[in-house]
Each structure stands twice: as structure tokens, then as C-alpha cells.
Write a structure and sequence with these properties.
single chain, mainly beta, 8-stranded mixed beta sheet, two-stranded antiparallel sheet
Length: 169
């Protein structure tokens, strides 16, 4: 389990340094393919899925959601998406990581640097997965909102997780 966490942290750290082509830009703000039930208010994305269950003492807590479907392109590129809200990244960078499980196969699908400003943002992670490729149909996504902190080797701190079934199209 520790090896898997270190590998996931390394993959997310690599994604932070690489250009964020799938993150909608370096600022992490996304304007297309908003989640169902979401709307813009005061220039920020708001989502009905963040309810009073994400409130503590009248303030929002960290939250993470996965969209109900993902895509598999002809070139075997898998794309997953959803929305998140995080409050504070002062202790270190925060990332949205995702793992796709279909049958007995499990693969990490990208990592997106999170913007922790208390507002709702969308995330999109993509990766080319071959040999064997994922196929349209039911799959499971395990998404994690994770902060890397500490001196030396950064250690992961999990802010929110979501495990849900999705439909790959």
C-alpha cells in the first residue's frame, strides 16, 4: 500500500511540473463541460452536488465528485472528469488524482493541479491506456483530492475521496 501511495504521489508531482494541457490552463479554471446541475454565479462555478453535508460550522469543507461518464477515444485515450472544492493549499500543492477500474484492471488516469480558493472547479484527467485498452461500458473511478506536504520527500495528505461507478462511452 505504501509503495502505491509513493507511486501515486510521484505521478501527481510529475503532473504538476508538466504542462497542464488537460487542466484547462495553469490557473485550473474550466469553462466547458460543466457538471449537470452546475451554474455560474459571480463568475464562479457552483454545483448543486455540494450540499449542507459539505458545511462545517457554516463553512464549506473540501469536496470531490466524479462525473457519471468518462470517454474512451479511438486512440485509447481515457478521459475522466468531475468537480472539486478545496480551501487551503498553504501547506503544499493539492492535486486531483483518478484511478479507473474495469474488470480486473486498474490504471491511474492523470493528475490535475487543484486551485484551493474555496470555489468550485472542474477537473479533467486523461491518459492513453493500451494493452489491453479500456472499452465502453461500466467502470469504477476512484478519485482523490490529495495535498503533498513536508520537507524532503513530500508526504500525501488526503483531503477528500470519491469512489463511484461510471459509464465509459
Amino acid at each position: 500500500m505504501r509503495v502505491r501511495l509513493v507511486l501515486a504521489a510521484a505521478a501527481l508531482l510529475t503532473a504538476a511540473v508538466a504542462p497542464l494541457a488537460h487542466a484547462g490552463g495553469a490557473d485550473g479554471h474550466h469553462t466547458i463541460d460543466r457538471p449537470a446541475g452546475s451554474h455560474l454565479r459571480n463568475g464562479h462555478l457552483h454545483d448543486g452536488r455540494f450540499t449542507d453535508g459539505h458545511l462545517r460550522d457554516g463553512h464549506f469543507t473540501n469536496g470531490l465528485f466524479v462525473d457519471a461518464y468518462g470517454t474512451v477515444a479511438d486512440d485509447s485515450t481515457v478521459t475522466l472528469s468531475g468537480s472539486y472544492r478545496c480551501l487551503d493549499d498553504s501547506a503544499g500543492p493539492v492535486f486531483v488524482g483518478s484511478t479507473l477500474v474495469q474488470g480486473d484492471r486498474s490504471t491511474g488516469i492523470g493528475g490535475t493541479r487543484a486551485v484551493c480558493d474555496g470555489h468550485l472547479h472542474t477537473w479533467t484527467n486523461s491518459s492513453v491506456v493500451k494493452d489491453p485498452a479500456y472499452v465502453p461500458g461500466t467502470a469504477r473511478v476512484e478519485a482523490t483530492l490529495m495535498q503533498l506536504s513536508g520537507t524532503g520527500l513530500p508526504l500525501p495528505r488526503f483531503l477528500a475521496t470519491e469512489k463511484t461507478d461510471v459509464e465509459l462511452r
